[in-house]
Amino acid sequence: MFKSISRFFRQVAVPPEYHATFRHLYYDIAWFGVLSGSVVNFLSIYATRIGATGLQIGLIGAMSAIVNLFLAIPAGRWLSRRNTNRAIFWTSVIYRTGFVLFIFLPWLFDKSGQVVAIIVITFFMAIPLTPLGVGFNALFAEAVPDRFRAHVAGTRNVMLAITFVLSSLVSGIILKNVPFPIGYQIVFGIGAFGAAMSSYHLYFVRPVQDRSSALPPAPEPAPAKETASPRGLISALRLDILSTPFKRVLLALLAFHFAHNLTTPVYPLYNVRVLELNDNNIGIGQALYYLTMLIGSMGFRRIVHRLGHKKVTGLGVAGMALYPLLLAFTHEVWQFYTISLLGGFTWAWTNGAYANYMLERIPPDDRPSHLAWYTIILNFAILAGSIGGSAIASQTGLANALILFAVLRFLAGISILKWG
């Protein structure tokens, strides 16, 4: 397996001028994997264990979406007037400082107070997260020429999978052997360190001019006084983008993200209260998920070259229906581990392809505004999915909700293939 990983990293001959930037993109996602496998992975589980309701679990995911819906367009215009890599670095630093605060919650509040504090902290973290979310895809597009994007995205998937697996396993072992809540504080500390290191490497991600496809210069921003008129306001909102073919891409991705996020508040409740999994079981399951994501990522570039990013995205989203569908019929730990193995393969395809599928359909000289609209639909889907998922589950039951959400994921994948 290690020989396969080594060959994977050497498959594409990358010109020397891109080596440093690509290397820092790989280190960035590797440390992000540490963050994801620790605090991001276990925050909702922690909230569930201290008594959070389904609605509160949904709000933890929805707070950032609420903020992003209001700030995405201003963030896109703000980014268009600034050096992209510097703006992304500083917003990542401010956003990720919030992860440090989770460490101290058990010392400051009782259980109900901690749940409220988690929701409030995620709300304020969402303010810098908005330009970070809008801008990173633009930075990636500026720093990675089109001909290398499948290679870089696939390699980043591999790095993410490796570090996520390791940090998830380590976190599960810590939570199993260290008394509550100290174990969670240690895990949150590991995540905060990973967040800091990820931001450190983002600082060194610099756009490199691609000689084969130089971008036209960015247009000069309109004078501020024009935005005072109704016509200027419409221009500021960039409603013209909704009259372009990119609208179909937005609608297809809206369906995907909505179906994907419906499960967000349901998984922790189902895993803890129905399957009665302990933290180590959950950590192992997540590690297995990302292990197969790693394996799936190794063949990602070959599949993309054969099918294209659109087809890979659509097939991946449709395949993601398997995870919630099978989870609804799971009763034993070994079954949970098995579907975790299956789920990683489909997520490897989807996660590696959907951003590039979108970027292929965005004019190179107008990325921030298009990505701002994508951020709006993404966060609307997160908000509606996080709140709607818990509401549907409360009416239908957790298992029935998972089956319904699986059907919606399958339909979202078909919509990308047919109309996206």
Q: Your description of this structure?
A:
The protein starts with a helix and ends with a helix. It has 420 residues and is an all-alpha fold. The protein has helices at residues 2-9, 16-49, 54-80, 84-101, 105-108, 111-143, 146-177, 182-202, 230-237, 246-261, 266-274, 279-298, 300-307, 309-319, 322-327, 333-359, 367-396, 398-419. The chain is globular, with a radius of gyration of 21 Å. The chain has a single domain, classed as MFS general substrate transporter like domains (Growth Hormone, Chain: A). It is 80% helix and 0% strand. Residues 212-233 have low confidence and may be disordered. It has 18 helices and no strands.
> What's the order of the H and E elements?
HHHHHHHHHHHHHHHHHH
**What's the number of domains?**
1
CATH class bucket? Mainly Alpha
**CATH topology annotation:** Growth Hormone, Chain: A
CATH architecture: Up-down Bundle
